[in-house]
Amino acid sequence: MDKKESFKLLNEAYWKIKDVLECVGHGCYHNQYYSVNMKEEKEHRHYCPDGVTCGLTVGEAVKLFYVQEIVEALFKPSYIPTVKDYLSIRQSIFFAHSLAVNYKEELTKALQGINWQGIIEIDYAELMK
Fold first, then answer.
1. Per residue in 85-118, is it b (16+ CB within 10 Å) or e — as a string?
2. If DSSP codes are grouped into helix, strand and coil, which group holds residue 81?
3. Do 66 and 14 contact (CB within 8 A), yes or no?
4. pTM of the model
5. Residue 40: which H helix or E strand, with range?
6. Which terminus of the chain has a lower count of CB atoms within 10 Å, N or C?
């Protein structure tokens, strides 16, 4: 899947997830989850060597992780983070898993018909080229 197709799929899923997260939990989860992903991506890019160009904007990368983490937690939980993982993985992964557990029905219904396997297969490193 090329970059354009990837982002068409991500955008479709993003807006559906956003709609759900703005309607549950007093409507604050979208902003909180998006902010956590934004902070993590900016911190990650802080360590990028001079002269290296990125194939994704910060916003595009945030949208990728925002969608991909929730989709993986809902449909293909290859692992469920534990307290031990807290020190070594991104906090957004915990957030995504919590959202997936607490709002599974709403998120699953919103994402019906979405190619979730395609979302999981989107490769951040390939898009950064």
1. eeeeebebbbbbbebbeebeebbeebbeebebee
2. coil
3. yes
4. 0.89
5. helix 29-46
6. C
